[in-house]
Amino acid sequence: MDNLPILSLITYSPLVGAAILFLWGGASPRAARWIALLASSVSFLLSVVMLVAFDRGQSTLQFTETFDWLPELGIAYRLGVDGISAPLVGLTTLLTLIAVLASWDPIRHRVREYYITLLLLATGMLGVFVSLDLFLFYVFWEIVLIPMALIIGVWGSANRVYAAVKFFLYTLAGSLLMLVGIVALYQEYFRQTGIRTLDVLQLAQGQYSEAFQFWTFLAFFLAFAIKVPMWPFHTWLPDAHVEAPTAGSVILAGVLLKMGGYGFLRFNLPLFPDATRVWAPAIVVLSVIAILYGALMALVQQDFKKLVAYSSVSHMGFVTLGIFVLNQLGLSGAMVVMLSHGFVTSALFLIVGVLYERAHTRDLAAFGGLARTMPVFAAFFGLFALASLGLPGLSGFVGEFLALLGGFRAYRWAGVLGTIVVILAAWYMLRVYQRVALVRAPGEPPDPDDPERRLAVAHGLPPIAGGSDGPHAYPDPRTFPDLTWREAVSLLPLALLTIWIGVYPLPLLEMLEPALAALLGRGM
Amino acid sequence: MSVRLAAPDWSLLVPPLIVVGTIVLLLIVDAVLRRPPARLLLSLAFAGQVLALASLWTIDWAQGATTFGQSYRADWFALAVALVALIAGALSVLVSAGYTESGLDPEGIGQAEYLSLLLFSVLGTMLVGAAGDFIVLLLGLEMSAVAVYALTAFARRRVTSVEGALKYFLLGAFASAILIYGMAWVYGSTGSIVLRDIAETLRTVVMPGQPLDPALLLALLLLAVGLGFKIAAVPFHMWTPDAYQGAPTPVSAYMSVVPKVAGFAAVARVLVQGLQPLSEQWTGLLGMLAAITMIYGNVVAIAQRDLKRMLGYSAIGHTGYMLAGLAAFTTGQAGDRSVGSVLFYLFAYTFMNIGAFGVIAWLQERRLGTTLDDIAGLAGRAPLAALTMAIFMLSLMGLPPLLGFYAKYYVILALIEAGQLWLAVAIVVMSAVSAFFYLRVVTRMYFEEPAGALQPARTPIVGVGLALTTLATLVLGLVSSPILDLVQRWSAALA
Lengths: 524, 495
Hints:
heterodimer
């Protein structure tokens, strides 16, 4: 076990799958799906092994692998995970597996190429979370861009090219500045100590002047803030989500946004502690704006997917809030929100995908009454909607509660404003649940026995929203079949994790706390 | 009075002599066999360059021996330039296969002429790299350039080809005149044309902090202008887009690389070696030129619809990055990375650019145009060609883990080590700008539906060339450590 390069195995098993598919030009769509499933399952199972073997009491990096790569420049192949990255690795492999399943039926066009791209993307994302060398990290960080842009641009919906290019250019612009920051940091450390290295742990030992920290922090911050995305760098996100295929949205929301939050925790905080304290109040302000703005935007969306995308902006605001209040509660909260958002929002995108497969629209006006005709679907949807709005007992609550507690401690006003959003979240999530699952479907005649309707008529009030008696272009939602077993299997693990983290978050918090405490102890 | 010259050491000249021999052989075979089989000449030209590459190992470059007086220096820098020139030449021969095997011109200007001109230009570039004085440097530079003027006009029935060649020729001749004038001023000021001696003399003349002798300043400016034309730095770039677009595509592939290698070798020999004591002045000058060049090239490339013209402007942008690398030169510091980073960049650029033009040549051979509209949906029609093109575009953009990223990284490293942060930021910002047009090629190829079918290929040799360049672009970056180590040591020869 000690000598097994398990992190490399986790990271590269999707790549092996991609290579097999690439070389096997004649692979049928069916074979492509199975190879992708196999590769992502191997990666997932290995990551489960890794998580089980992970020593939760320690703050140090575990499963480290090191060998010299470009020794003259101090660049080495360094891998390792701690309590911050290990759960994210697990999240990534799980969501990759789910993305493979979720693409099984919807992707019918260039299937082999699709799975090559998806598996490449998985390797890039895993590499980001396990790299401990800034150069290696940057390489993986950029590798993620191309397959994600391709998934949006080739397999997306109508306006996909615009969204793909926007996504690509935005994130590239951010990360290029980070490259200058990386080289500047390397040079500064070399100037002080005479050692050439890009090892994150070693660089974090250096003492940098405040002015240097100020600018380098900013270079890293922009790259991560665009990825998270923080307000006002978020404008690529709704476009990318709306155009991406379902699995693309799952990966984008579930993993790619976490790369930004992870970047703050792994690089900005330990490398630039002084600058972090200088910048933190401004970032907290941006976070609170993001929390409110995302929720308000979600309230008015008519496109289901855009609604979930804006709710993502709001949730990720809790992540940056939790990180930059710079206390243990906030950091734990940020991590739990990241994981919870990974389960819940990904699941909501799957829910949207289920509807889109049946109705070929995401317009909320096209749905109604699905609780009657698709009961299993409605049950899952209800669970994830409640988790998203932060119902106690489900995972969303734990993270947001901790992040807000941390917020109250550091900036009372931020805590107060953040709490308001819990109401807004309930408003938009329940509105969309009512719209999709409960109210009358378009074209459905009003039920004369509906007591509420009778009440409304008796008091001369307008009837409750829903249904439309006029002509409509959408297929009748009452004819939709319930979830297929593959759709149910994709949603089930996410549901179980949501409940588990909500009810018994202790093992997760135990895993996070040593690493986060070390993070605070080192610099803050 | 009789002058006794020491007998030249011919062993140092083996690689260029092999190239000369190949040229002679090509012309004789063509004359004797009348219409020799196309593959024969191509194989000869390729084999000659491979042999010359192999012969590089017969010389002990570490000694930095000189011959013909001080005119020819077989030092590490010469080795680096010869290596890049020969690799580029060999790859260009492969990429040209489709063009030369088509028979070129019914009236008889055939592939022997094409290939020998190409080899002449390689030879000239090798001479520039090995130049110990101004005479050999100028001879090499002209030999490299004149051959390419002729190659540019090779499609002589097409007016754009002739127009491009004429512009290239006129501006090139003009630039040479300015360059020679600059050299004359240096000679007048220092009394020598040998680069080493010039540096020695200048070291005693130039005092740090003192204003520069106007004669030297004039010489420096004239040299910068003349060399600026040769490497297509803005504002001396006017000939580039027309020449790249007008020339037959394999020629564009070649001339986007080898004359640029010659130009940069000349810049390094003249400025870094000869005028090293003036480095304070010329690094500032090169820094300005670099910034203007990369901004202009990358911004104007966005507006291009024709792939060859777009790559012409992109080549200007890359000239800017390389100039920035030279601007990072700092005298007297151990481990100066500037020249090494530029050598690495030239090396990387060779594979990416010949590859990119090679794909266009490959497509042209299948009766496809060279505009963005022509390659729309290419991924559906020719998945491998689209994939290789995408790899070259992303590498030119500087995306890891492709070769172009490492090249850019080393230049940025050199700049930050030299404290030139603003140029490093300029490179990064321009890389983001360049993503616009490089990515557009990828999106057009992949995000659109294919239309029409491709003609079958006439020869598989172009494919071999493309496979080699793709492999290099994919793999060499990952093992760039030993290469960087080498070019770093090699560049020390200029000190």
